[in-house]
Structure formats: C-alpha cells, structure tokens
Design brief:
With 153 residues, the chain is an alpha+beta fold. It has three helices and eight strands, in the order βαβββαβαβββ.
Length: 153
C-alpha cells in the first residue's frame, strides 16, 4: 500500500524558518527528550547538508540529513535519522532511508555511504545493505557502531 507521504528535499539555505523549526523540534524531541540524552544537536553540519523529510497531514513523520563526503567521513553520510514517535511501525523509517540512500548516491555521485548507527538499530540498517565496519563505541552515552553501504555502478 502506497503511503500518502509528501516528500521534501532542500539545502539548508532553502529551508523556511518554520521548516527548520519543525525539523529541530523533532530532532530535539527524539534525540534529547525521548532518549534522555543531553548533547549538542546543532553541530555546525546542517548548513552544508541536504535535508530530506516526509510529511503526513503537514506533520513531519520522518527525517534524515544527507552529508557530503568530507564533512563527517571521507564517504558521504546519512544522519539524524528520525521517525516521529507517533508514527513508528508504519514503515516510514524504511521509506525515508530508501529515499535517503538513493538521493545520497546521486546527489554526491558516490558509491559508498558511511553512518554512525545506534547499536540497537544494527539489524534495521543491515536490512538496508549496511555492514558493520568496526567495534562499537559510546557517543553521547549511547552505544553506536559505524556501518558502510557499498554500491557498485
């Protein structure tokens, strides 16, 4: 069944004030409040990134940030992957990641995408083709692992 999601894809400078506010509000809701993790979400990388999100009835239900090669890693990267708590279990996380992977590969003309994944999501990212490429580590008190997706043209 096809969802009724509206897709949005913008560079930082193209975001409206309201779009940026809603994105940051959702990121804060999930990464700070829900995960009880005090950390600086505003890391200086948003301005050089692309932002991809889906809305349902004008509410952001899924979001990711696409980072060019050289910003976080040598490879392009996808980060700040979020599904709104009220809309989990609807498959929006898989949809946004599939869109993000294709956009990242084409936007940056790359074949590799590296992510820093929370360890409890290893299987989720593994099902999308990402492979673990190192030992787990703590980032802001939460266990993470680096994962790599490699696509051949």
């Amino acid at each position: 069944m096809q969802s009724q999601l509206q897709w949005h894809y913008k560079q930082f400078d193209e975001l409206s004030s309201n779009e940026l506010y809603e994105i940051l509000q959702l990121r804060s809701l999930v990464f700070v409040v829900e995960q009880n993790c005090v950390y600086l979400d505003l890391d200086g990388k948003d301005q050089s990134s692309y932002h991809l999100w889906a809305t349902l009835n004008d509410v952001i239900v899924a979001y990711v940030r696409l980072l060019p090669p050289g910003l976080s890693y040598d490879e392009a990267s996808i980060g700040r992957v979020i599904t709104h708590p009220d809309h989990r279990k609807n498959g929006f996380g898989i949809e946004v990641m599939n869109h993000a992977i294709e956009r990242t590969l084409h936007q940056f003309n790359v074949t590799d995408i590296r992510i820093s994944a929370q360890c409890y999501l290893e299987q989720f990212y593994g099902n999308l083709g990402f492979k673990i490429i190192g030992a787990s580590y703590l980032e802001d008190g939460i266990p993470h692992v680096e994962m790599l997706l490699q696509r051949v043209h």
